Amino acid sequence: MTRLLIVGPPGSGKGTQAARITDSLGVVAISTGDIFRANVKEMTPLGVEAKQYMDAGDYVPDSVTNAMVRDRLAQSDVAEGFLLDGYPRTVAQVAELDDILASNGQNLDAVVLLTADEDELVARLLKRAQIEGRADDTEDVIRHRLSVYREQTQDVVAAYRERGLVREVDGLGELEDVTSRILTALRQDA
Ligand code: AMP
User: Fold this and answer.
1) Per-residue pLDDT of the chain (190 residues; tens, 9 = 90+)
2) What's the rounded Cα separation, in Å, for the pair 174 and 32?
3) Does residue 141 sit in helix, strand or coil?
4) Is residue 6 classed as helix, strand or coil in its secondary structure?
5) How is the chain split into domains, by residue range?
6) Ligand 1 binding pocket mutation candidate from 30, 36, 73 (most atoms within 8 A of CB)
7) Which residue of 28, 33, 46, 166 shows the fewest CB atoms closer than 10 Å?
8) Which residues are annotated as catalytic?
9) What is the CATH number of domain 2-183?
């Protein structure tokens, strides 16, 4: 299991789990959001282009995002495997990733889908907002963000479910427990 995607709702600890899994499996973590943010910070041409969309809360256009992912997946450190986080986000990006992998003679091994009870996520995110002083993160705003996530991911998840690639893992509980659940799920045959 070396070519993986991770999908999970806000508040599910997806980023933390991604780091722990990649450490454990010895593969590279690739987060498109992180790459964009790093480019914005460095004010690279890619960052300047992406920023306007990110600031507006929109997706960066596929032409930009796909080219960036294609470049990243062509780098030598990815040879042992990768865990993609934040891509693909649309059905068109699913097709693009298929094409990128096919041209590298590769396949996707599995998609980790972190699940969590929505009320539990709301409670978590409200607590986090309180600790971090994010007064704008009201329950309504948080519930809206979760419904946007659900809408945006459902087609991508459905596409991979059809291929039998999705491994659903309960994302609630202790950090260590969730990590070992994910690793166990990846060890099992699909
Ligand atoms: P994230 O941290 O994954 O939420 O990504 C932050 C921002 O980067 C998003 O709001 C988008 O503007 C952009 N972004 C990240 N991944 C993608 C993607 N796969 N397609 C388009 N835009 C993306």
Assistant:
1) 699 999 999 889 999 999 999 999 999 999 999 999 999 999 999 999 999 999 988 899 999 999 999 999 999 999 989 999 999 999 999 999 999 999 999 999 999 999 999 999 999 999 999 999 888 889 999 999 899 899 989 999 999 999 999 999 999 999 999 999 999 999 986 5
2) 26
3) helix
4) strand
5) 2-183
6) 36
7) 33
8) 14, 89, 128, 134, 145
9) 3.40.50.300
